[in-house]
Amino acid sequence: MRTDDAIIRPLLRIQDVTTRGALYGLTAVPLLGVASLLVGDHHHRRTLLGVVGLVAAFIAVVGILVGLFFWWTCGGDIRRCRDWRTVTGQAGPIAVAAPVLLRIGVLALVLFPGAFGLHHLVDGAEYGSWLYGN
Questions:
Q1: Least buried of 8, 43, 65, 126, by fewest C-beta within 10 Å?
Q2: CB–CB of 101/66 below 8 Å?
Q3: Range of the domain at 71
Q4: DSSP 45
Q5: Domains in the chain: how many in total?
Q6: Could you tell me where the DSSP H helices lie in 75-127?
Q7: 36/79 Cα distance (integer angstroms)
Protein backbone atom coordinates (compact mmCIF):
# COMPACT_ATOMS: atom_id res chain seq x y z
CA MET A 1 0.00 0.00 0.00
CA ARG A 2 1.34 3.42 -0.93
CA THR A 3 0.93 6.47 1.25
CA ASP A 4 0.67 10.12 0.24
CA ASP A 5 4.46 10.34 -0.09
CA ALA A 6 4.48 7.29 -2.47
CA ILE A 7 6.44 5.07 -0.08
CA ILE A 8 5.31 1.46 0.02
CA ARG A 9 4.03 0.44 3.47
CA PRO A 10 4.76 -1.49 5.61
CA LEU A 11 8.47 -0.71 5.70
CA LEU A 12 10.98 -3.54 5.50
CA ARG A 13 11.95 -5.45 8.64
CA ILE A 14 15.32 -7.08 9.31
CA GLN A 15 13.71 -10.50 9.77
CA ASP A 16 12.02 -10.37 6.35
CA VAL A 17 15.18 -9.19 4.60
CA THR A 18 17.37 -11.88 6.17
CA THR A 19 14.81 -14.62 5.49
CA ARG A 20 14.66 -13.71 1.82
CA GLY A 21 18.46 -13.55 1.64
CA ALA A 22 18.71 -17.02 3.19
CA LEU A 23 16.20 -18.38 0.67
CA TYR A 24 18.22 -16.85 -2.17
CA GLY A 25 21.34 -18.47 -0.73
CA LEU A 26 19.66 -21.88 -0.48
CA THR A 27 18.70 -21.52 -4.13
CA ALA A 28 22.23 -20.48 -5.13
CA VAL A 29 23.95 -23.59 -3.71
CA PRO A 30 22.35 -26.11 -6.13
CA LEU A 31 22.90 -23.68 -8.99
CA LEU A 32 26.58 -23.54 -8.06
CA GLY A 33 26.68 -27.34 -8.00
CA VAL A 34 25.21 -27.56 -11.50
CA ALA A 35 27.51 -24.80 -12.77
CA SER A 36 30.55 -26.60 -11.34
CA LEU A 37 29.64 -29.70 -13.35
CA LEU A 38 30.08 -27.63 -16.51
CA VAL A 39 33.77 -27.25 -15.65
CA GLY A 40 35.39 -30.43 -16.91
CA ASP A 41 38.85 -30.51 -15.34
CA HIS A 42 39.06 -31.72 -11.72
CA HIS A 43 41.60 -29.10 -10.66
CA HIS A 44 39.63 -26.26 -12.25
CA ARG A 45 36.39 -27.47 -10.64
CA ARG A 46 38.01 -27.55 -7.19
CA THR A 47 39.53 -24.11 -7.76
CA LEU A 48 36.19 -22.66 -8.88
CA LEU A 49 34.39 -23.94 -5.79
CA GLY A 50 37.16 -22.79 -3.46
CA VAL A 51 37.30 -19.30 -4.95
CA VAL A 52 33.51 -18.93 -4.89
CA GLY A 53 33.56 -19.98 -1.22
CA LEU A 54 36.23 -17.44 -0.29
CA VAL A 55 34.60 -14.61 -2.22
CA ALA A 56 31.24 -15.47 -0.66
CA ALA A 57 32.79 -15.39 2.83
CA PHE A 58 34.24 -11.93 2.16
CA ILE A 59 30.97 -10.63 0.70
CA ALA A 60 29.05 -12.07 3.66
CA VAL A 61 31.16 -10.23 6.22
CA VAL A 62 31.20 -6.93 4.35
CA GLY A 63 27.57 -7.07 3.25
CA ILE A 64 26.17 -7.90 6.67
CA LEU A 65 28.31 -5.40 8.57
CA VAL A 66 27.79 -2.51 6.15
CA GLY A 67 24.11 -3.37 5.68
CA LEU A 68 23.45 -3.42 9.42
CA PHE A 69 25.40 -0.18 9.85
CA PHE A 70 23.35 1.51 7.12
CA TRP A 71 20.16 0.12 8.66
CA TRP A 72 21.15 1.59 12.02
CA THR A 73 22.00 4.99 10.52
CA CYS A 74 18.64 5.21 8.74
CA GLY A 75 16.77 5.00 12.02
CA GLY A 76 14.00 2.76 10.71
CA ASP A 77 13.34 4.63 7.44
CA ILE A 78 14.25 1.65 5.26
CA ARG A 79 12.97 1.68 1.69
CA ARG A 80 12.55 -0.88 -1.04
CA CYS A 81 14.30 -0.54 -4.39
CA ARG A 82 10.90 0.38 -5.85
CA ASP A 83 10.94 3.48 -3.63
CA TRP A 84 14.06 4.88 -5.31
CA ARG A 85 12.11 7.83 -6.74
CA THR A 86 11.01 8.89 -3.25
CA VAL A 87 14.59 9.31 -2.01
CA THR A 88 15.54 12.88 -1.19
CA GLY A 89 18.81 14.31 0.05
CA GLN A 90 22.33 12.95 -0.01
CA ALA A 91 21.76 10.33 2.70
CA GLY A 92 18.61 8.96 1.05
CA PRO A 93 20.25 6.24 -1.05
CA ILE A 94 21.50 4.61 2.15
CA ALA A 95 17.86 3.82 3.00
CA VAL A 96 17.68 1.76 -0.21
CA ALA A 97 21.19 0.27 0.04
CA ALA A 98 20.78 -1.07 3.58
CA PRO A 99 18.36 -3.92 2.79
CA VAL A 100 20.14 -4.70 -0.48
CA LEU A 101 23.52 -5.11 1.23
CA LEU A 102 22.04 -7.08 4.11
CA ARG A 103 20.21 -9.45 1.75
CA ILE A 104 23.34 -10.00 -0.36
CA GLY A 105 25.40 -10.57 2.78
CA VAL A 106 23.00 -13.22 4.10
CA LEU A 107 22.87 -14.85 0.66
CA ALA A 108 26.67 -15.10 0.70
CA LEU A 109 26.62 -16.33 4.30
CA VAL A 110 24.50 -19.30 3.20
CA LEU A 111 26.46 -19.79 -0.05
CA PHE A 112 29.98 -20.03 1.34
CA PRO A 113 29.54 -23.21 3.45
CA GLY A 114 27.71 -24.76 0.50
CA ALA A 115 30.58 -23.90 -1.82
CA PHE A 116 33.16 -25.33 0.58
CA GLY A 117 31.02 -28.44 1.06
CA LEU A 118 30.87 -28.95 -2.69
CA HIS A 119 34.63 -28.34 -2.84
CA HIS A 120 35.29 -31.12 -0.34
CA LEU A 121 32.80 -33.39 -2.10
CA VAL A 122 34.58 -32.92 -5.43
CA ASP A 123 37.98 -33.24 -3.74
CA GLY A 124 37.03 -36.61 -2.23
CA ALA A 125 35.47 -38.05 -5.39
CA GLU A 126 37.01 -41.18 -6.88
CA TYR A 127 39.13 -40.86 -9.98
CA GLY A 128 37.05 -41.47 -13.08
CA SER A 129 33.68 -40.66 -11.51
CA TRP A 130 31.37 -38.05 -13.00
CA LEU A 131 31.90 -35.88 -9.93
CA TYR A 132 35.69 -36.06 -10.27
CA GLY A 133 35.71 -34.72 -13.82
CA ASN A 134 38.38 -35.24 -16.47
A1: 126
A2: yes
A3: 14-123
A4: H
A5: 1
A6: 92-123
A7: 36
Does residue 52 belong to any structural domain of this protein? Answer: yes
Is 8 in a helix, a strand, or coil? strand
Residue 8 included in any domain: no
Residues 96-106: tens digit of each pLDDT: 899 999 999 99
Question: Strand, helix or coil at 22?
Answer: helix
Note whether 105 and 18 are within 8 A (CB): no
Instruction: Give domain status of residue 58, yes or no.
Output: yes
Distance from CA of residue 70 to its chain's centroid? Answer: 17
* CA angle in degrees (0–180, nearest 5) for 128-132-114: 160
Whether 111 is in a domain gets the answer: yes
**Whether 133 contacts 88, CB under 8 Å:** no
Rg (CA), the chain: 19
Question: In this predicted model, what pLDDT tens digit does every residue of 74-91 receive, in sequence order?
Answer: 887 888 877 778 888 887
